[in-house]
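Notebook entry, structure prediction.
Reason for the run: the old model in the group folder had no record of what sequence produced it. Starting over properly, with the input documented here first.
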Amino acid sequence: MSLDHDRPADDVGELPEPADRRLIEAIQPLSSVVVAFSGGVDSSLLAHAALTALGSEGVLAVTARSESLAEGELDHCRRLANEWQMPWIAVDTRELDDPDYVANAGDRCFWCKTALMDALVPIAQERGAVVVLGVNLDDLGEHRPGQQAARERGARFPLVEAGLAKGQIRALAQDRGLEVWDRPAMPCLASRIPYGTAVTVPLLRTVDRAESALRALGFDDVRVRHYDDTARVEVPQAQLVRAAEHADEILAALEDLGFRYVTLDLAGLRSGNLNQALG
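New structure, fully documented this time:
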């Protein structure tokens, strides 16, 4: 994957000299870990460092398979695990069976992580392992109720314990030669559905297809927020002009999926932007 030169320069931070050592030292005392592995840069760095710290016998990467996972992501995780010779499995999480998750209130992520931990904790207990998540320092300042659910079930955040923020993580992943070092974030598809709108399989599939259509047009870092018959497209600010130039293609692709109106958010892509509705 090549560097997206439209990404802000400060998204890749300077690599602190002891960063790798700090991360290894945060992992080694755990002896055995189960890594919640999404295939993004955070969980990939965590899993790769765990392999260094504990060896393959001390690491199991687990990817949650559910309707909120974008198409192709499971295969991406499987391929990385194979390349790194890392033990890996996929497990089904059943968050859509939980009315609290489906209701999509401001605590949706709490119930999502609860479903994840319900799947991971028994695996970890059987192995005498600790569940670890790729939470970083920057995540701590955002609305992330899922972190509470994970902590309550005994999960650890080694990237936080090593004092690593997102830019440093990208730099360290690049230094380790990980192809995902500049990969755009791929949060769960439910994050495109406004709070208060019930999460359903048809909505998740529509979002997935919409974003796949835009990626086919060359917009790798994109969100399509689903507002009933309106799609709100978010791309990085540096790509707004290009998106406008491709307006006819974007409109055609999203109208084919049932949207009547397609808007381009002039503020650009912002992670967690639907959280503004929570006040």
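Summary: The first helix runs from residue 19 to 27.
The old model has been moved to the deprecated folder.
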